[in-house]
Amino acid sequence: MARRHLIRYLTYSVGLMLSILAVRVPRLRLPYAALLLAGIAAYTCAPYRRLLPQLIGQPLQKKLHALALVPCIRLIGDLAKMVGYLAGLWQRFTR
Fold first, then answer.
1. Of the candidates 72, 28, 27, which has an alpha carbon nearest to the alpha carbon of residue 47?
2. CA within 13 Å, CB half, 53
3. Crossing angle, helix 60-94 and helix 2-24, to 10 degrees?
């Protein structure tokens, strides 16, 4: 279980460092953007696969809204897991 959390922390840490680097070094922006988009596509592939059949017959605005929410939900869920893991560790070691 700790391995999953370690992977999650490393992924977001490296992503944050690359984001800062891409902001400071303009020639890295395009490669970083491509890498970021590829990572987001890979990470959200399964939720989109489950969502797409449910969008058939829905209005365009509802489809776009649902499609935009998938990465947001993933990000918020990961952040909640990261905070919860740290809180659990803190609780375990302080009792």
1. 72
2. 4
3. 120
- Of residues 87, 83, 68, the one with CA closest to residue 12: 83
Domain hosting residue 85, numbered range = 2-94
CA angle 28, 32, 36 (to 5 degrees): 170
Q: Could you tell me the pTM of the whole model?
A: 0.80
Rounded average pLDDT over 80-89: 94
What is the tens place of the pLDDT at every residue in 22-54? 999 999 999 999 999 999 999 999 999 999 999
Distance from chain centroid for Cα 48: 14
Q: How far apart are CA 84 and CA 88, in angstroms?
A: 6
Name the DSSP class of 54. G
Query: For the chain, how many structural domains are there in total?
Result: 1
Least Cα distance to 19 among 27, 28, 9 occurs for 28
